Amino acid sequence: MPHRITKHRWSVLFVVSLAMMAVVVVACAGGSTTTSSGSIAEPMNAPSNANQQKSVAPHSPQQYLIKALNITMEAKDTQRAASDLQAWISTTDPLSTAENINYQQVGDNLYNISMSFSVQATLYPRIESYLNSYPAQHNGRLISTTKSTQDVSGDYVDTQSRLKNLRGEQTRLLTLLGHATALGDILAIDQRLTDVEGKIEQIEAHLNQLNGQVSFYTIAISLQPSQAVLTPPAAAWSPGKIWQDAVGAAGAFAQVLITMIIWLAVFSVYIIPLVLIVWFVLRWRRLHTGRPLPYAA
Predict the structure, then answer these.
(1) In terms of Cα–Cα distance, which of 156, 152, 154, 163 is closest to 199?
(2) CA-based diameter of the chain, in Å?
(3) What is the full DSSP assignment across 52-115?
(4) Which pLDDT belongs to residue 134?
(5) Among the listed ranges 78-82, 95-99, 109-113, 241-245, which one has the minimum average pLDDT value?
(6) Of 231, 71, 67, nearest to 136 (Cα)?
(7) Angstrom distance (rounded) from CA 30 to CA 32
């Protein structure tokens, strides 16, 4: 009897052990399945999350800028420098335009030159860099560089919005005008339509001006002769130069003297009779003044 009880007890323990092992195996299999499923599902959801962040991420508003550059430089030959710069800008930007070119003479074949160009906004940085390096590369000197930037983004966006609203109103008014039958309604709608179309023309002109200013930037260039050319060094003392100056002065004096003699010879037909008349008058007065008065008895 005790032997049977011990044998039954061992059988129960063996069954319980098998059951526990089965539970552990099932649990491990479930954990590995869950882990692998999670690792597979995560990459599948990643693109959707990226797209969601991309759509939610705020976009920076586009800027509309108006830029201008004013550069002043010295050059030994301003005419040649002006020709070189104009040719380079025209080649680099075929759409550029020379708006104003002025020449002011400041010496013997020496000129102050001012030029103004309108260049594409996309090529503006390249042209600015070339102009800043031009004086050093051509034995000149960069005097000053002035840049200005104006942000017209608010004005640009507001103008576009007003234009869109006015065009929408124009469309509605045209629709109403097509369905109106009463004369008073037709006149009122037509008057309002005229006002709206006038505003549209004004806003379109302003928008076109802004488009031109943000698409093309202004570059003003001032060229000045170098100081070495304007004020050459004083010449050394030279007897030969002094002799030439003296001979020149003597020749000029002789020319003036001969000129006076010629003028006197030509006008002598008037001067000589006048001198004779004056001489006779003075002589006559002197004779009559010196005659003694008759004696009275």
Answers:
(1) 163
(2) 224
(3) HHHHHSPPPPPP-EEEEEEEEEEES-HHHHHHHHHHHHHHH-TT-EEEEEEEEEEETTEEEEEE
(4) 95
(5) 241-245
(6) 71
(7) 6
Instruction: Tell me how far apart the alpha carbons of residues 78 and 221 are, in angstroms, rounded to a whole number.
Output: 11
Kindly give, in sequence order, each residue whose CB lies less than 8 Å from that of residue 241, ignoring residues fewer than 6 positions away.
235
User: For the ranges 63-72, 187-196, 241-250, which has the lowest average pLDDT?
Assistant: 241-250
| pLDDT of 5 above 70 | no
Residue ranges per domain, the chain? 12-59, 63-231
Tell me which amino acid residue 227 is.
Answer: Q
pTM for the full predicted model? 0.57
Report how far residue 254's alpha carbon sits from residue 119's, in angstroms, rounded to the nearest whole number.
62
The two three-digit tokens of residue 61, written as one number: 């508003």
102 or 36, greater pLDDT: 102
Give CA 55 to chain center in angstroms.
37
Q: What is the tens place of the pLDDT at every residue in 53-66? A: 334 345 667 899 99
Query: In this predicted structure, what is the pLDDT of residue 150?
Result: 95
The alpha-helical segments, DSSP class H, found in the chain are 2-56, 78-92, 124-137, 153-179, 183-215, 227-230, 239-290
- 9/251 Cα distance (integer angstroms): 155
CA distance 86 to 113: 12
253-268 burial string, b = 16+ CB within 10 Å, else e? eeeeeeeeeeeeeeee
Confidence at residue 198, expressed as pLDDT on a 0 to 100 scale: 95
Interatomic CA distance for residues 52 and 45, integer angstroms: 11
pLDDT of residue 288: 76
Buried b (16+ CB within 10 A) or exposed e, 85-99: bbeebeeebeebeee
